[in-house]
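Objective 1b: paired records.
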Amino acid sequence: MSETEVKQEFTENKMGVMPVKKLILTMSLPMMISMLVQALYNIVDSVFVARLSEDALTAVTLAFPMQSLMIALGSGTGVGINALLSRSLGKKDYEEASNAANTGILLNVVNYVIFILLGIFAVRPFIHSQTDNPVIAQYGVTYLTWICLLSVGIFFQMTFERLLQSTGMTFESMLSQLTGAIINMILDPMLIFGIGPFPQLGVAGAAIATIFGQVTAACLGLFLNLSRNKEITLSFKGILHPKARTVSQIYLVGVPSIAMMSIGSIMTYMMNKILGRFSSTAVAVFGVYFKLQSFFFMPVFGLNNGMIPVLSFNYGAKNRERIREAISFSVKFAFCIMATGTIVFECIPGILLKLFDASDNMIATGSVALRIIAIHFPVAAICISLGSLFQAFAKSTYSLVVSLARQLIVLIPAAWLLSLLGQVHYVWFAFPIAEAMSLLMTMIFYRRIKRQIIDTL
């Protein structure tokens, strides 16, 4: 096929011809909206748990590192699927695109089996390693056991949504995610407090509501892929007969992404232990921060999810100008979102904490924490946006190195050293310190990609 014919094929796809800003908004807004709802239901989940007690809220925070690991495996595998599938479609290789989709489903079956085993053998020692309080420990074991043993929903929800996103069906992906989130929000108070015909299940009810929402979203995602996604073919034969080359290509991008997100799981675990030396309230504040910051971080991740296939496609099409425009627009958009988050955290931290039925002590501790940590939000926006470029260009190892340095090499040691000063509020300064280092490394890697790849297209 001649170069002219190749270019003509690329122009048939909207990612090669639609104005870049409009394209990114079209691809990203549905995912940003769905992730906003996702963030909202995460907040609502903790709001209802906090109505039980501060101990229950602390317990859910202690469970978060393993939940984060779960998300790392599912989402990281999804990143690999997304990148391979988008590149294959950009090259009009529909067979390889379908291989990526079917193999991704099988890989997430394996992920689910892993967490069944963790749910059976690892949950209790994991929770007890973070607290000596028997009430908090029992809450944590109950909640996390349910989450792990029935994690099938979250793995397949993420997989089927990634398939929809990779083929440009972002509205359908949003619909799947919205459905799961809304069901979770409705069931949370009913199952936690025993409203209507439902029994009062406490923290177990919060876990079951989450699981039910995830399973529903996964079923809807499967239906939408089978009925409306015409660019890939899902089949039992394709799932049960994976190709080694496809698996390796998925994990070439996916493993660094999994490792990068798993680093976040280790970070939260270590922070829980550092903060636990001060009080369970400090741990609860850390958990509340993670819920609240997701309201701003999740839309930025949604923006990135929409940007990755755009960058991947135009990388395959060797369209340098569209890549540059996509990067510039996305960084500016993300910066505005995160700057808004900084303003909110600085101005009304007490109001935010009251959403979680916070005591006076928790408000005093948490207000200082939110104001200090929020300093780094705009810087994080730049790092996250450029990180999507690393993933789209199969340079996820750059993201891994940056994340490793920020969260383990800088953040945790800084937090531990600051904790030695004897006041918990010093610990929060570890976040802006780590993000400053992250920005420096991100810019170094970005300039390398720009010089070696983008400028040579």
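Objective 1b, second protein:
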Amino acid sequence: MIELKTKIIELYDSAKSDFSSDDINCFEEFKKILNTGKVRAAEFINEKWVTNEWVKKGILLGFRMGIIVEFSYTDKKVFYDKHTYPEKTFSIDDNLRLVPGGSSVRDGVFIASSVTMMPPMYINVGAYIDEGSMIDSHALVGSCAQVGKNVHLSAGAILGGVLEPIGANPVIIENNVFVGGNAGIFEGVIVKQKAIIAAGVIITAGTPVYDAVNKCFLKKDKRNPVEIPERAVVVSGSRKLESNPNFSVYCPIIIKYRDNSSDNSVSLEMDLRIFDK
């Protein structure tokens, strides 16, 4: 692994555009371990999410290496994209559900067993989807986004991709989070365990989020993304402009922290997550 990491960094930093067969084999080995989840764009280390810059360099290297080719699956299904990133293929042994109807997963994505994907949805390169999660219709999981166990990403929800700049944190959704329909999480925002993001809520790195329970805005700075606390229930709201109180601007609000009522409202139907052994 250390040798592969060193080679990927060297290839990326070289800025070369003419690659040897050894270079291409190195990238394919990198993509293999990306597909199996042995490496990922961000890891939880010492109680903190840490971005693996070399992994993002490897993903970008694949775009530099790639040439545009035609992918023909049927007479009506033809695509033109970099040859290094074809559509990911699955088998029955992967023990997941990919429902027919126009969904697509790019190569270089880790999908754990017991994940359900409803059509049409899209998962981009570098993403990581852990066990028991559901990616619902019209949802988008952007480049390098990290999704934990038993997450429900509702219809039309978006997790923004963060491939550049290299050091920028990807969007991270921890275990047992519920993301409502048409919600959007962008720019390296971290949603901690068991939080609920209500339908239509939009959160970016620069979005002030007000905690109505503790009567304060969540702390944020340029180096650290916004973190939605564990069990927080976030809804759309507004706040008055200090410069002109006659006007208000959008503001997500933590209206409460999860209780039995909110747990019941987002309980998962395990019938959808039963797989043959």
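The mean pLDDT is 92. Residues 21-35 form the longest helix (15 residues).
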